[in-house]
Specification:
It comes from Aliivibrio sifiae. By secondary structure, the chain is mainly beta. The chain is built from 2 helices and 16 strands. The chain folds into 2 domains: 96 residues, Immunoglobulin-like (Sandwich); 96 residues, Immunoglobulin-like.
Amino acid sequence: MTITVNGTNDAAVISGSNTGAVTEETQLHTSGTLTVTDVDTGEAHFSNTNIVGTLGTLHLTDNGSWTYDLDNTNPTVQALGKGSTATDTITVHSADGTPHQVTIIVNGTNDTAVIGGSNTGAVTEETQLHTSGSLTVTDVDTGEAHFSNTNIVGTLGTLHLTNNGNWTYDLDNTNPTVQALGKGATATDTITVHSADGTPHQVTITVNGTNDKAVIGGSNTGAVTEETQLHTSGT
């Protein structure tokens, strides 16, 4: 009597390092090693393969060593701000097709905002005490393309900034430095603003002087007398 025994696939057991972490801009690679056991002859291994995930690529060798390369140009990666994370979960398979997941944590970093718009203005002592403008901000990090409502005191006045970038500068016309400016003289008030992520940007205000009338006082009368007192004086 002949008995034929047909084999079936026994699922492999995969273990080892199945997590890793990378960081946008600064740490783009992570690696680990998986192990595989399989009672089925010749199936206790992997195949050399590159597996594209949602945020990067995992390179797997037949002995289970793997390296993950973050795609730092991916918009989702670039949109991660400091303290935020995303996950790339990649499924690998042993020789018999047994699946196993490798999970990569992607940490965000702060991308410097780009600030543009009108960053200069001019005011004039006594006659034109206000000037205004509007700044623009772009930031690839999600939720950081804005300013905060704030009042920033400079050396000669105050700049009022709104969250959408509109600003108004009010000159302190009582400031002695302002009042000391003569016609044709100027002073500068440079104020630093910050976008939501802390990116600094300078707004420069030129303060023009005017002629302030002199104040003349003292003795402005005198008296003389015919024949007897021919002179008088004062200061």
